[in-house]
Amino acid sequence: MTSTGERVHAAALELFAERGFHGTGIRQLAEHAGLSSATLYHYMGTKEDLLVTLMRTSLERLVRAGEEIAGSTDDAPTRLADLVGMHVTSHAQRPLETRVVDDEVHALSPSRRQEVVALRDRYEALWQQVIDDGVGSGHFAVTSASIARRALLEMCSGVARWYDPAGRMGLGELAEEYSALALRLLGVVGDPATTPARRVAPDTPGPV
Amino acid sequence: MTSTGERVHAAALELFAERGFHGTGIRQLAEHAGLSSATLYHYMGTKEDLLVTLMRTSLERLVRAGEEIAGSTDDAPTRLADLVGMHVTSHAQRPLETRVVDDEVHALSPSRRQEVVALRDRYEALWQQVIDDGVGSGHFAVTSASIARRALLEMCSGVARWYDPAGRMGLGELAEEYSALALRLLGVVGDPATTPARRVAPDTPGPV
Amino acid sequence: MTSTGERVHAAALELFAERGFHGTGIRQLAEHAGLSSATLYHYMGTKEDLLVTLMRTSLERLVRAGEEIAGSTDDAPTRLADLVGMHVTSHAQRPLETRVVDDEVHALSPSRRQEVVALRDRYEALWQQVIDDGVGSGHFAVTSASIARRALLEMCSGVARWYDPAGRMGLGELAEEYSALALRLLGVVGDPATTPARRVAPDTPGPV
Amino acid sequence: MTSTGERVHAAALELFAERGFHGTGIRQLAEHAGLSSATLYHYMGTKEDLLVTLMRTSLERLVRAGEEIAGSTDDAPTRLADLVGMHVTSHAQRPLETRVVDDEVHALSPSRRQEVVALRDRYEALWQQVIDDGVGSGHFAVTSASIARRALLEMCSGVARWYDPAGRMGLGELAEEYSALALRLLGVVGDPATTPARRVAPDTPGPV
DNA sequence: AATGAATGAGACTTCATTCAT
DNA sequence: GATGAATGAAGTCTCATTCAT
To answer: What is the pLDDT of residues D94-142, one digit of tens each?
Structure first.
């Protein structure tokens, strides 16, 4: 049911996430995918090409989801909570992908890195924009919006390092918890209108 | 003034941080330190030994500083702010060390990893303890203390990835900003005694 | 109009001549012929078979033409001039073929080499015979007939390396020039019957 | 007595000459030199670097010897005979070197090729000059000086393909024979003053 | 203290070739 | 006819490490 190409991607994801790009050999990759190392080259270009493909796939999905959220509402707290929820959820569901994207950029050659970083920047710009908007609208209170962006992204991405889908915490719970942390970090005080329930009353004026 | 051994450590720090452990060759290491690759082996055991040494040095300093703070006061918000300040400051001052510690654990063999992870766990336990204490004392309001710990640590460690000592933000400022973010994330509302007064509107109703 | 098989031969000729047998991959060959590498094997045996086919085709044509000339006259100078003219002309017209034949014998396995070298020897024997005849008849004056044969063949084959069909020198001119060089090299002085009159001062004393 | 580096060069010369550059593997090279393939890399850069070194060494020797001859006399026939003698002698004495230089230029990457071809062109220019001079002074009679140059060089280089130092023909004899062939090819008629004996009477006026 | 020389193992990648479809 | 998939062997080169000097 799964094609060979998909098996190659899956194997690469697992090994790159676990041992790093440089820590993973072509032969291990082949063995993990159930192929000979020569056959591997039917399904990829270079090893670096494979890494780039994985990264691009992952980042493009993230950007797409992010842009959808960005266009969904003008309300900054809502948008931010949604971004956090989406980000955390996808990091929890696809921890391998996101770890590879987050940790292996340094393994790319300059030209490839540029391409990948451009995508990542596009995604981060969405976050920057919500925060800027929230600060502008008076919903958020932070000294430095860019520090806040970095702090939020780091903290949310960390989920890929520990979340256990078989554990007792559900994805919804996780998303709500992180959204709450994020909003508080941004200086939003707990108000039924802005915490999870908020989405029900989109016309609520901003607090603080 | 700098001994050869120190030069080796410095070179390793730079290269491991920039290209990763597996991405750094013994020959590059030697060249970067101004030695022949054979001579390198006078100043280190294996390449992995070198990595462990760097990690242990860094982590021990962190643990020592953390334990000093942990023993300094019972007041959870103060302790947490101090931990954050120290953590952030040292990540800003020693970005190479901290990046190596944070990113290269996967490159260690199981037995070495155990040793390093034990140290890291000891450090993280200090954070866990403050948060638990703060929750117990009613200063902090979080759903999950362990999630909060992880979120805080990730967010604070990120500083090593972007802080520029030559930029316009000073270390003190940085520490204060992050302490404030952390306390807010933990649900602490503006209190002149624990957070910089400026940022907070003292008349805010304040939830929880 | 050109069959696929011919396209394969043409592609092989070009690539073998340009990059050598070992420098040419099956995949490049296929691409150059506009086929997949698997399809290539419908039109050839092994890569070495292909090389042998090209060589044999080329050498057989040469031998055939040479034998025709050899049987055409008893006059050694005429025969030699004709051989030179034919050799030079075919090297100018089919530089790829001749370069492959001349340069890639070393790439053949012993048994295949034997076969090809036998053909080449047969061709060279024709030259040897004319020279021997010319020496015997007193037309040629050389110390060593075999050295003369080698010198002549090398010199004439070189044409395949530089002759430009689009340049200003025509094939007829080329053939005449080389025939003249060859006859002079063999010690034949200008004789209106065998060499272009223009180049020779008919009153030259003329040695033997 | 022979250094390892020299052994590597000797092994490369033998194999490149016998099987061609692309036909020679690194492992065969190492085995032939009595080293492991990894050790080989102590004594060379890439395989191509090795080839270039061999070619440059050989060509530089040839250029040096050629320039010495070029500066030794103004008499074109003498100079040409000396060039031929030197060329033929060195091709007979160092057949491996010269074969590699003559046959493997196509294996070089563009930039390397440029460098090597420049040297070769410098050498060939010496030949072109003598022929031009001889034509100008009326000693040589050829329709095309550049064709003559090519013909002569091809014919003389061929020696590296068959001369057997253990055979009955001595080097001196070989040189004389080829000089005689060359002069005749250039239209110089046999005159004691220009054939081998000529060098004894350097003041002899030009013949023809 | 320092290093040139050496190496087995393994890196990534391509080789020529076969075969089922 | 034609080709995608597959592979063992081999390609060039670098790896971390040792050792005699």
So the answer is: 999 999 999 999 999 999 999 999 999 999 999 999 999 999 999 999 9
Between the CA of C48 and the C1' of F2, what is the distance in angstroms? 22
A145 contacts on B by Cβ (under 8 Å): none
| Residues 6+ away with beta carbon under 8 Å from A96 | A13, A14, A16, A17
Nearest residue in chain B measured CA to CA from A156: B151
Instruction: Judge whether residue C198 has pLDDT over 80.
Output: no
Fold of A46-200: Tetracycline Repressor; domain 2 (1.10.357)
Q: Distance (Å) from the C-alpha of residue D1 to the closest C-alpha of chain C?
A: 32
The count of CB pairs under 8 A between chains C and D is: 95
How does DSSP classify residue B119?
H
Residue D132, CB, less than 7 Å from strand F? no
Residues 41-80/C with CB within 7 Å of nucleic chain F are: 41-42
User: Are residues B147 and A163 in contact, defined by beta-carbon separation less than 8 angstroms?
Assistant: no
Side-chain half-sphere of A203: how many Cα atoms within 13 Å? 0
Under CATH, to which class is C46-190 assigned?
mainly alpha
Identity of the residue in A19, A162, A180 whose CB atom sits nearest the CB atom of B106: A19
Residue range B46-199 in CATH 3.30.70.100: no
For chain C, list the contacting chains (3+ Cβ pairs, <8 Å). Answer: D
Which amino acid residue lies closest to nucleotide F11, measuring CA to C1'? Answer: D25
Output the distance from D46 CA to F11 C1' rounded to whole Å.
13
Q: Which residues of chain B make contact with A100, given a CB cutoff of 8 A?
A: none
Contact call for residues B14 and B100 (beta carbons, < 8 A): no
pLDDT at B4: 87
User: What pLDDT does residue A189 have?
Assistant: 76
> Measuring from the CA of residue B39 to each C1', which nucleotide is nearest?
E2
And the tokens for A34? Answer: 């159930």
Q: Any idea which nucleotide's C1' is nearest the CA of D36?
A: E7
Window D32-71, strand E contacts by Cβ < 7 Å: 35-39, 41-43
A134-166 burial code (b ≥16 CB/10 A, e <16) = bbeeebbbbbbbebbbbbbbbbbbbbbeebeee
List where CATH 1.10.357.10 sits in chain D.
Answer: 46-200
Query: Residue B103 CB: number of other CB atoms within 10 A?
Result: 20
Is the pLDDT confidence value at D66 over 80? Answer: yes
CATH of domain C1-44: 1.10.10.60
* Closest alpha carbon to D162 in B47, B93, C148: C148
**Cβ contact D–C (≥3 pairs, < 8 Å):** yes
Concatenate the DSSP letters of all residues of C123-177 into one string: HHHHHHHHHHHHHHTTS---S-HHHHHHHHHHHHHGGGGT--TTSS--HHHHHHH
| CA–C1' gap, C153 and E16, in angstroms | 35
Q: What are the average pLDDT values for consecutive 10-residue runs of chain B, which has 208 residues?
A: 88 97 97 95 96 97 97 96 98 97 96 96 98 96 95 97 94 96 90 38 33
Question: For C99-108, what is each residue's pLDDT tens digit?
Answer: 999 999 999 9
The CA distances from residue B52 to B38, B58, D82, in Å, are 20, 10, 70
Please name which of C101, C91, C86 lies closest in space to residue C163, comparing C-alpha atoms.
C91
Return residue ranges of chain D for CATH 1.10.10.60.
Answer: 1-44
